[in-house]
UniProtKB/TrEMBL annotation:
This is Acetolactate synthase-1/2/3 large subunit. InterPro entries: THDP-binding, Thiamin_PyroP_enz_TPP-bd_dom, TPP-bd_CS, TPP_enz, TPP_enzyme_TPP-bd. Residues 379-516 form the Thiamine pyrophosphate enzyme TPP-binding domain. The lineage of its organism: Bacteria, Pseudomonadati, Pseudomonadota, Betaproteobacteria, Burkholderiales. Transmembrane segments: none annotated. Pfam families: TPP_enzyme_C, TPP_enzyme_N. Belongs to the TPP enzyme family. GO terms for biological process: small molecule metabolic process. GO terms for molecular function: acetolactate synthase activity; flavin adenine dinucleotide binding; magnesium ion binding; thiamine pyrophosphate binding. Keywords: Thiamine pyrophosphate. CDD domains: TPP_BFDC, TPP_PYR_POX_like.
């Protein structure tokens, strides 16, 4: 048995059975091992950002890590933007990164690089295999690191000679690596926060993030709100929000600095539940970086690595929160399907069309900024947002989500500028036959940047600045782009066409794309 085969056996035994791959020469023995050893689903991505983003989406739905296969330092570097997003989302991923054979490194061949140096900023755990007999243990250690709570990025660097060298029998089976159990919270902190809620409930905000925005945890937050009168919100960006009819409504903290500052000014106390202290996404002249008032008292109930649902349950018990939480009623009125396409009309229509138990991957950016408010009463679903802010996340994450949960409909909402970063994901959707409806909002501009140009006080954009903020010369043809990647596509210019295209796509059972001309 060679080192590559030992690593495949090790990953499978540890519970990793999906590998998103974009290999090169240094990884050919690992590819051969994946070919010979049954059990690993191998999914090819035509760009490393698709590979790493898909692994992020897979973890968000499966709650366990997948592997990636990347080619040397440059291949890893191509995937770093979506590894950044995955790291911010606390997604567990095992990166298998090829390296030159050890003796070849001293020759400084063209693809030689500091692979560990490339990996380290976007990884929690980095290790280079030192000898072939240590490959299996290194693979298991990588899975263990990725399976921490919260999840971590583990990058295992496999030199080519450690992959091809023979060393003995298959590693002894040890069984799947169990996801680390979350830590319990401090009981005294719970009692202290309960006291604050009993005395200052109406001026207190529970700010939820991470695992706290899942259905079970949010229900406990709703009970606490019903008992104490406190407010409940979630961070603007959250990796997996349980939303829709029958669930406790979780309004998101506004993205805009002014709106967020105004919203938070009403609270004397903010209780952080899996969330971070709220800060602005960027610095703006003459605006605060911290969104809460200077005199606000911050209380930490639980970190992401804690048993967040258990902490909220304890807090509910400590506040005698026995009343049932308010839940979002089902939508009673059908949305209008006549008229122009606007963010408001699109959002209202989406609320009637989102299928039950769907997964919505949101990178609609400027067009979708208001979707949160108008889709809250759609059928029960989960909403995934970018966590690190690096664009080009939605299409790859949709790939990973669809592979992790093939029984669920996946809807990717994405701006045309963002989608261009990782449009190769469409090819993977077609090859794998994934049930993904991709909606491209084609405003033919980086609209978010036009707004930010004004927000930072840069004045009015001139001709050269405008050229750097628009993508309309030539206009992108998303129907042709999708069909060229093997995905059926249609273009819509009004609400009626959009409604018909969405219904057709959702009924198809496979990948399709709708270009919405704004």
């Amino acid at each position: 048995m060679n080192g590559a085969e030992a690593l495949v056996h090790s990953l499978l035994d540890a519970g990793v059975d999906t590998c998103f791959a974009n290999p090169g020469t240094s990884e050919m023995h690992f590819v051969a091992a994946l070919d010979r050893i049954a059990g690993m689903r191998c999914v090819l991505g035509l760009f490393e950002g698709v590979v790493t983003g898909a692994a992020d989406g897979y973890y968000r739905l499966a709650d366990r890590p997948a592997a990636t296969l990347l080619h040397l330092g440059p291949g890893l570097a191509n995937g770093l933007a979506n590894l950044h997003n995955a790291k911010k989302a606390h997604s567990g991923i095992v990166n298998v990164v090829g390296e030159h054979a050890t003796a070849h490194l001293e020759l400084d061949a063209p693809l030689t690089s500091d692979v560990e140096g490339v990996a380290r900023p976007m990884s929690h755990w980095v290790h280079t295999v030192e000898s072939v007999d240590k490959v299996a243990n290194a693979g298991r250690a990588a899975v263990s690191a990725a399976s921490a709570r919260p999840g971590q990025i583990a990058s295992l660097i496999l030199p080519a000679d450690k992959a091809w060298s023979e060393f003995g029998d298959a590693p002894a089976a040890q069984g799947a690596v169990m996801t680390a159990a979350p830590d319990a919270v401090d009981a005294e902190s719970v009692l202290s926060i309960a006291k604050t809620l009993r005395s200052s409930g109406k001026s207190t905000l529970l700010l939820l993030g991470g695992p706290a925005v899942r259905e079970g945890a949010a229900q406990w937050a709703g009970r606490i709100a019903a008992a104490t009168g406190c407010a409940v919100m979630c961070e603007f960006y959250a990796e997996r929000i349980s939303r829709g009819a029958g669930r406790f409504p979780l309004p998101r903290l506004p993205y805009s600095v002014d709106a967020a500052v105004q919203k938070l000014a009403a609270f004397e106390h903010i209780v952080l539940v899996g969330a971070m202290p709220p800060v602005a996404f960027f610095a703006y002249p003459n605006k605060p970086g911290r969104l809460y008032s200077p005199g606000t008292n911050l209380h930490r109930l639980a970190h992401r690595g804690n048993d967040v649902e258990g902490a909220l349950r304890m807090l509910a018990e400590a506040t005698d929160a026995t009343r049932t939480a308010f839940v979002t009623p089902s939508r009673r009125q059908a949305a209008d399907t006549e008229g122009p396409l606007t963010p408001a009309s699109i959002g209202a229509l989406l609320a009637t069309l989102i299928p039950e138990n769907a997964v919505v991957v949101d990178e609609a950016v400027s067009t979708g900024r208001g979707f949160d408010g108008v889709t809250h009463d759609a059928a029960p679903h989960e909403w995934l947002t970018t966590m690190g802010g690096s664009i080009g996340y939605a299409l790859p994450v949709a790939v990973g989500a669809a592979i992790a949960a093939p029984e669920r409909k996946v809807v990717a909402l994405v701006g045309d500028g963002s989608a261009m970063y990782t449009l190769q994901a469409l090819w993977t959707m077609a090859r794998e036959g994934l049930d993904v409806t991709t909606v491209i909002f084609a405003n033919r501009t980086y609209q978010i940047l036009r707004g930010e140009f004004a927000n930072v006080g840069a004045g009015e954009p001139g001709a050269r600045a405008t050229d750097m903020l628009t993508i309309d010369r030539p206009a992108l043809d998303w129907v042709s782009l999708a069909r060229g990647h093997g995905v059926g596509a249609t273009r819509v210019t009004n609400l009626a066409e959009f409604a018909a295209a969405m219904r057709s796509s959702l009924a198809s059972g496979g990948p399709s794309l709708i270009e919405v001309i704004l």
